Every structure is written in structure tokens, then in C-alpha cells.
């Protein structure tokens, strides 16, 4: 660094100011110099950088930067109860793949919200999380599908231990039964379909406050006859929309279609209930 070269903070002015205040009067904030000295702060140091270049870096990072994919961000959020339980389920379910028995987590896509035909994974983490959140909250869970779920967001009288104790075995059983449909790239892995299954599964929880209570066995019997093939005759108008050639688009998502899927699963004698079962 040349004498007289400017020292410029490209970003993080608030953090820099906070550190100055802490070091000026640590006792005011209930900490000591010894505690502060143990904290490691990562930073980048550039030599010979002009103020103009620093401004450009600030702009590029904060305006032109590519945001982290929502699915990837959620997979890293270990405070989110939906993500925690989704990971537990993926670890619990054991499936046969390439001649080996492996946990489902090996085939869960953590980075993207949608699968492509070439992806080796069979379901996304965000779709599993939607299943968990709707099973936890019922229909109200549709509005929490993209929000962090904290302890305070759990149903009244339910703590994280109880939620895990009931949901992990219940949903693991359902996922194990659905895995052949996942592997076949059928409709079962679509977020809207998993949301509907989650809403139905909510009726098998001890904290379900509305609707008809179900036993796990009754829930399975409702789901078993469902035709998960990606065909318009089963899913058009329920979880997807079909174009003129009959190609299905599940792009509506959990919030738009999850409720209809749940109604169809829980009401086998309704029009949609008969449709998804091919009756």
C-alpha cells in the first residue's frame, strides 16, 4: 500500500460503526475487551483500490448481485421448524436406489425449487417442507409455505418435540409409500400435491381442531387409490392446468392448488375426489 492511499470501507458501514462503539466503551454493552478479542470478523482487503472502484464494487454487489435461491436459503435455515422436520423425515425414510438401501436425503434436491428431467433427485426440499408445514397447520400452513416457522408459530399447546414425535413417523410412512411415484416423476412430488396431502395428514394429528379426525390407517386408505400419473384426466383443474394438447402445468403451486387437492383427497365422493382416483 502506498503512503497516502485511502482506506475505504466498501460495505458494512453499520457493522464497522458498531465495532467502534463496542471498543470505545465495552462495559456499556455488558462485554469486555477480552470477549471482543476472541471474536473473528471476516473481511476482504484490497490494495491500490480507488474510491471510484470501491463505489463500483458496492453497487455491483448490492444491485447486480444474484440473490441466493430461496430453496437453498431455506435448506440452510436450521431455526425453521419446517426445514428441521423435513430433514428428519428425509433421513428417516429408507428407500432402495441402485441396488442399495439409502436414506431419502440422498435423493432430495436442496438447491432448486423445481426438478428437471435430468436431475437425479426425486423431490425438492421445499416440497417436503410444504408437506410438513401443512401437516402441522392444516390449510393455514399454505400461507406459511415461504415463511420461517419459529416455536411461536406452532399450533396452540404444541411444542417442537411433540410436533416431531407425531409428524416424523406419520409423514415418513406416507413418503415411503409415495416413493415409487417420486421415482417415476409422477404428480406426487409436485408441491401442490404434497401440500394437499399435508392438509389431509393434519387431520391425523392430535392437535387438529377442525374437520373429521383420521387415524393414520384411514389417511393411508384415502391416499392409496389416488392416481398420481401426470395425466390431465386426473389432475387438470385440481393441482394443474392442461393446455390444448393435454400437457399438464403444475406451476400454480401449493397456495393456489393445495386446498383443492386436500378436498379431493378427503372427499373421495366429490367430483375432484373421483377425478384424482380415476373413478
Automatic annotation (TrEMBL):
Q: Which domain of life is it from?
A: Bacteria
Its recorded name reads DNA-sulfur modification-associated family protein
Amino acid at each position: 500500500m502506498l503512503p497516502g492511499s485511502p482506506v475505504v470501507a466498501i460495505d458494512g458501514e453499520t457493522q464497522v460503526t458498531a465495532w467502534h462503539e463496542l471498543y470505545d466503551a465495552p462495559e456499556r454493552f455488558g462485554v469486555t475487551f477480552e470477549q471482543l478479542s476472541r471474536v473473528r470478523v471476516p473481511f476482504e482487503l484490497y490494495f491500490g483500490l480507488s474510491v471510484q472502484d470501491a463505489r463500483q464494487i458496492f453497487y455491483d454487489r448490492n444491485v447486480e448481485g444474484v440473490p441466493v435461491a430461496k430453496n437453498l436459503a431455506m435448506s440452510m435455515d436450521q431455526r425453521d421448524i419446517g426445514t428441521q422436520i423435513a430433514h428428519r423425515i428425509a433421513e428417516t425414510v429408507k428407500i432402495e436406489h441402485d441396488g442399495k438401501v439409502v436414506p431419502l436425503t440422498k435423493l432430495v434436491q436442496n438447491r432448486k425449487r423445481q426438478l428437471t428431467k435430468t436431475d437425479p433427485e426425486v423431490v425438492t426440499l421445499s416440497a417436503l417442507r410444504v408437506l410438513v408445514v401443512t401437516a402441522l397447520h392444516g390449510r393455514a400452513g399454505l400461507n406459511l409455505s415461504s415463511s420461517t416457522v419459529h416455536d411461536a408459530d406452532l399450533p396452540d399447546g404444541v411444542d417442537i418435540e411433540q410436533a416431531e414425535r407425531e409428524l416424523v413417523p406419520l409423514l415418513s410412512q406416507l413418503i415411503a409409500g409415495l416413493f415409487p411415484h417420486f421415482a417415476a416423476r409422477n404428480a406426487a412430488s409436485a408441491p401442490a400435491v404434497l401440500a394437499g396431502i399435508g392438509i389431509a395428514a393434519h387431520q391425523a394429528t392430535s392437535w387438529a381442531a377442525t374437520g373429521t379426525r383420521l387415524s393414520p390407517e384411514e389417511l393411508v386408505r384415502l391416499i392409496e387409490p389416488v392416481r398420481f400419473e401426470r395425466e390431465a384426466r386426473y389432475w387438470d383443474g385440481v393441482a394443474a392446468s392442461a393446455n390444448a394438447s393435454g400437457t399438464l402445468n403444475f406451476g400454480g403451486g401449493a397456495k393456489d392448488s393445495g386446498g383443492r387437492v386436500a378436498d379431493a383427497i378427503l372427499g373421495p365422493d366429490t367430483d375432484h375426489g373421483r377425478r384424482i382416483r380415476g373413478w
